[in-house]
Amino acid sequence: MAVTQIPRQPTAITPSAEEIKNKRLNEDNLKIAVEALAQDGVVVVEDAIPVEDLDHLNAKMIQDSLLLQSRGEDSPFNYNKGNLQQDAPPWAEYFHPSVFCNPIATQITSAILGPRPKWTFASGNAAMPPLPGIENERQPVHNDVEFPHPPKCFALVTNVPLIGMNPENGSTETWPGTHNRTVAKEGGQKGQRATGHIPQEQLDEQVAKAGPPCQPTLRKGSFAIRDFTIWHAGMPNKTQDIRIMLAQIHFASWFPNPTRLELADDIKPILEELDAKGELNLEVPVNWVSKEQIQATYLDRALGKKYKTNKTEEE
Q1: Phi and psi at residue 264, in whole multiples of 5°?
Q2: By mean pLDDT, which of 53-57, 145-149, 297-301 is the weakest?
Q3: What is the CATH number of the domain that holds 136?
Q4: What is the pLDDT of residue 81?
Q5: Average pLDDT over residues 274-290
């Protein structure tokens, strides 16, 4: 009789009240985070973001999700219409540093990538509830990095769910250990909405070697950090609540990446104050635009973002 393997959940750290107050993990917890990312390519930090900040942002982004979904074929869906790529509103009213520049997240990414990583990507996705007569599909397992990359970790993604995230509402399927690869390209074709598929034979080999993938459960107020190159897949949302998860990508300062954020200019004083207090610890290349301009355009830019290097440019 075949033995069913139980997926292993990612390592989770719960900072103490003192660590939250100091906005830094202690040495023991930082070591746990670094080792988990080295071994599994993913780590969870629990109860590190004030829920009121998440609630404020979530209320606005749910409105935006419904607007994007109403565009049908023109919506910025990834692989299937139940999964929308969606930017957060990029002006000061909704720019909570606890969400976008979380100091514990930055402490972890800096420990691995080196001092002052470059924050050059900010977006997210919305797992939409099923529509009548339409069954939401899972994404194929894929790798976001479709350009040659070094064996050393060069980028980390911080994922912040705006509500509690679990298998029922579409927690991202994650394949621990698959970041320890140096394959230049894995499946798919450039320009498709379904790039980067991992062939089934490779999935079977990975399960035999390291066990099945997992769908982590994160309490509201928690975040996950994952290696940029790890295999993963968006999963169906079986509930009636929209599940939004943000993604910030930090790149090592030595990795060639001229991509820049586009933010409203009323965020600039917030970043400058954080930097002056020693709480930013990031390089943040930004094209500053007016609040009015960005409010008119931010929902039209989500699909087709590019990661740029000195040799290639990939969707």
Answers
A1: -70, 145
A2: 145-149
A3: 2.60.120.620
A4: 81
A5: 97
Domain that holds residue 237: 25-314
The CA distance from 315 to 195, in Å, is: 9
Exposure string over 85-108, b if 16+ CB within 10 A, otherwise e:
bbbbbbbbebbbbbbbbbbbbbbb
Written as one letter, the residue type at 146 is: E
Instruction: Tell me whether residue 10 is in a domain.
Output: no
Residue 8 lies in a domain: no
Q: What's the domain count of the chain?
A: 1
Burial letters for 181-209: b for 16+ Cβ neighbours within 10 Å, e otherwise? beeeebbbeeeeeebbbbeeebbeebeee
147-206 pLDDT tens trace: 777 888 999 999 999 999 999 999 999 999 999 765 544 554 444 445 568 889 999 999
**Residues 280 and 117 sit within 8 Å (Cβ to Cβ):** no
Residue with tokens 């009213």: 93
* 100-139 pLDDT, tens digit each: 999 999 999 999 999 999 999 999 999 999 988 767 788 8
Higher-pLDDT residue of 36 and 134 is 36
Whether residue 11 lies inside any domain: the answer is no
Distances (CA, A) of 189 to 144, 146, 192: 12, 9, 6
Using CA atoms, how far apart are residues 308 and 27, in angstroms rounded to an integer? Answer: 34
Name 295's Cβ contacts closer than 8 Å, sequence gap at least 6.
89, 91, 264
- Distance, in Å, from the CA atom of 262 to the CA atom of 265, rounded to the nearest integer, reads 9
Nearest to 144 by CA among 39, 234, 40, 10: 234
Say if 20 falls within a structural domain.
no
Taking the CB of residue 162, how many other CB atoms lie within 10 A of it? 26
